[in-house]
Structure formats: structure tokens, C-alpha cells
Specification:
Elements: E1 2-7, E2 13-19, H1 21-24, H2 30-44, H3 103-119, E3 123-126, H4 136-145, E4 152-156, H5 161-167, E5 173-177, H6 183-188, E6 191-195, H7 196-206
Parallel strand pairs: 1-3, 3-6, 4-5, 4-6
Antiparallel strand pairs: 1-2
Amino acid sequence: MANVSVYNMEGKEVDKIELADSIFGVEVNEHLVHMAIVQQLADNRQGTQKAKTRSEVSGGGRKPWRQKGTGHARQGSTRAPQWTHGGVVFAPVPRDYSFKLNKKEKRAALKSALSDRLSGGKLIVVDELKFDAPKTKDFAKVLENLKAAGKTLVVTGDANENAYRSAKNLPAVKFYATNEINTYDVMNAQCVILTKDAVSKIEEVYA
């Protein structure tokens, strides 16, 4: 088991904690991580893009000129794609981009992502995130104390309203409860901050 330091909100080491190898110490499966990220991004696509084909644009009811003898190339309709205001070749139509990834694959991808963040020194464990009132400046100070720079993912065991409201105005920070984490956001973060209760819940759910 990996033995990592636990920090408080001032950035001081206050404890040590062992992380389960079955979650934070697995061999990274790059293919599964890639598939999980592609699936999430595909699920987020609206799929509402639409353009008209030559059968849907207006006009073109007759041949613009006779077939031979004009000096022009032969044309059958002004709705053809080479004409201005003509239809689009292979026009996009509304579609569903989502595809299925089974539960075991999703869990394995998330474990790989968490293991990658830990092995890369990008995972920090804090004892708690407790705020008396929502205050963005206080949350920014905590990130500074923990030396968390760039895109940061913060995960708590349960919904933490004051902490969430303190973090939501920081553009580089995403704040989730444990049941909301996903492979894409873990891999997209330059720093992942987990509270002790978040670690316990992740190990309980994904063991």
C-alpha cells in the first residue's frame, strides 16, 4: 500500500494514510482511460448539427440550359453542390454520438486515472475542508498552502456546501463529491485533492 502524507488546510503535514493498491496502485491501462475519456466527451456532444442536401434546398426545378452547344459545362440542376446556394455534399444530420462502455471498464479506467495521478505526484490528501462561510479568497488560500497550481479537481466524501460555494468562482477548480468523479476530470486535472473521507468512500465503493 502507498503511504502518503495528509495535510491540513494550512498546508502542514498532520498525518499519514495508506492508500489501497487495488485502486491507487494499479497498472495504468491507457487504452481504457482513452476509451472512458472519448465516451464522456461523446456523451457531452449535442449532436444537433444540420445542413441541407441537394434534395432539401429550394430551386432547381428545371435544367438551367440545354445539354449541348452552349459552351458551358453540362448542368442538371441549380441545387447541385457546385452551385451557389446548392446543397451540401454528405451534409451532417442530427445524430447521437454516445456509445456504451460497461461498468467494469469504467471502474478500471477510473482506478488507472487515480493511480496515474498518485504516481505522478499530482494527488494530495487533506484531512478536511471546513469553512464557516462561503469565501472564495479563503479557498484560494488553501490551494496556495497546498501548492496546488493549474487545473485542480477537489473531491469530498459528501456534499460540502460552504466549500463548494467557496470554490465555484475559481475558474481552474472543479469541486465534486465522490459519486461524481470521472476519468476525464481526473486526467484533465494537474492536481487532484482528496479529503480523507473521500478516500474512504472511494475505497469502499471501488474496492
